[in-house]
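User: C-alpha cells in, sequence out, please.
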C-alpha cells in the first residue's frame, strides 16, 4: 500500500525507522526489537540506505523481509550521490518487484573523506533531481527530507525553503523532518513552508534521547540545537544510564504530545534499532491520545 493511501485513512501516522544491521549480533537484536515494535501496529516503517555501498544490499534484504515476511508497509530510503540514471532505474525496478511502493528519496551526504558535496553536471545533484526522475515513473509514493533548522549547507531557511518547494513540485508526496529538540523550529518551519505553497504532510522526526554523549554527537552532525534547558536536565546525570533514559523518555513524550496537540500529522521515530524507548514513548502518547 502507498503511504498516500494511508493518509486517506489516518489523520496521524506513526512510523519507525531502522538502519541495516552491520553484524550477526546486530541482526538478532534488530529482530527482537522489530518484534516488540510490531506490537504497536505502526502505520509504516522505513529502512535507511547507507552511502558508499557497503550496506545497500542489507537495506534491500531487510526491506524485503519487513514488507513481505512481516507484512509491514515499508518505505525504502534511497540516496543518489554518485549514482547513474541506469543504476537508479535498476534499483527502482528491483524495489518495485519486491513489492515496495514507498520511497524516501534523498541526495545523501558527500562520500567519506570528502568534506563538501561536489556538483556533477551529468549526475543527480539534489534530492529534487532524484524525486523528478523517479516520479516520472508514476508508480511509487515519494517522501523527501526536510530540515526545520535548515540544511547545514544551505545558509538558512531563506535558501533552503525554496529548494524544498522545488523538491515537492518535482513530485514529493510528503516530507519527513530531520530530528529537532525544540518544537518551535518545527512549528515555524511548517508555517513558512505553507506560506510558499508547500501543502503536503510534514511529519516530524523524533529521536529518543537515551545517551547524552551520543545525542550531542547526532545533534552536531545534523545541525539540530539542543535547548539549554534540556542540557541542564541531562548533564548532571550523563553517566547514569537509567536516569538519562527516564529523563529522555519524558522529554520525548512531552515533545510528541505538544507536536500532536498542535497539528503535527503524526510522528516518525528514529528508533536507532532499539525498541524500549520508542515503546515507552509510544505507549505514553497513545494513552494521551485516547484520553483526548
Ligand atoms: C528523513 C530523513 C531521512 C534520511 N535518510 C538517509 C538515509 O537513509 N541515508 C543517507 O545517507 N542519508 C539520509 N538522510 C540524510 C540526507 O541524505 C542528508 O541530509 C543530505 O545532506 C541531504 O539530502 P536531501 O535530499 O534532504 O537534500 P537536498 O534536498 O538535495 O538538499 C541538500 C542541500 O542542497 C540545497 N539545494 C537543493 N536544491 C538545490 C538547488 N536546485 N540549487 C542549489 N542548492 C540546492 C539545499 O538547500 C540543501 O542545502 C536523511 C535525512 C532525512 C531528513
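Assistant: Sequence out:
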Amino acid at each position: 500500500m502507498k503511504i498516500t493511501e494511508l493518509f486517506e485513512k489516518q489523520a496521524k501516522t506513526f512510523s519507525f525507522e531502522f538502519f541495516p544491521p552491520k553484524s550477526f549480533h546486530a541482526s538478532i537484536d534488530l529482530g527482537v526489537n522489530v518484534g516488540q515494535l510490531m506490537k504497536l501496529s505502526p502505520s509504516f516503517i522505513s529502512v535507511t540506505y547507507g552511502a558508499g555501498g557497503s550496506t545497500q544490499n542489507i537495506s534491500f534484504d531487510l526491506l524485503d523481509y519487513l514488507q513481505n515476511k512481516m507484512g509491514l508497509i515499508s518505505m525504502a530510503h534511497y540516496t543518489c550521490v554518485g549514482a547513474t540514471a541506469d543504476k537508479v532505474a535498476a534499483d527502482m525496478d528491483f524495489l518495485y518487484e519486491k513489492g515496495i511502493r514507498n520511497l524516501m528519496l534523498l541526495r545523501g551526504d558527500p562520500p567519506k573523506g570528502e568534506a563538501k558535496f561536489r556538483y556533477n553536471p551529468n549526475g543527480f545533484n539534489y534530492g529534487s533531481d532524484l524525486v523528478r526522475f523517479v516520479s516520472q515513473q508514476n508508480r511509487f509514493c515519494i517522501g523527501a527530507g526536510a530540515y526545520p533548522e535548515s540544511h547545514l549547507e544551505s545558509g538558512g531557511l531563506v535558501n533552503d525553503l525554496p529548494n524544498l518547494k522545488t523538491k515537492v513540485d518535482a513530485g514529493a508526496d510528503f516530507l519527513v523532518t530531520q530530528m529537532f529538540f525544540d518544537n518551535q523550529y518545527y512549528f515555524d518551519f511548517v508555517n513558512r513552508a505553507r506560506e510558499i505553497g508547500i501543502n503536503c504532510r510534514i511529519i516530524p522526526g523524533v529521536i529518543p534521547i537515551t545517551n547524552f554523549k551520543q545525542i550531542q554527537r547526532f545533534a552536531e552532525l545534523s545541525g539540530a540545537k539542543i535547548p539549554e534547558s534540556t542540557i541542564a536536565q541531562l548533564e548532571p546525570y550523563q553517566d547514569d544510564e537509567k536516569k538519562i533514559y527516564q529523563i529522555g523518555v519524558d522529554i520525548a513524550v512531552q515533545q510528541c504530545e505538544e507536536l500532536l496537540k498542535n497539528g503535527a500529522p503524526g510522528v516518525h521515530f528514529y528508533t536507532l534499532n532499539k525498541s524500549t524507548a520508542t515503546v515507552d514513548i509510544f505507549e505514553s502518547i497513545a494513552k494521551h491520545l485516547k484520553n483526548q
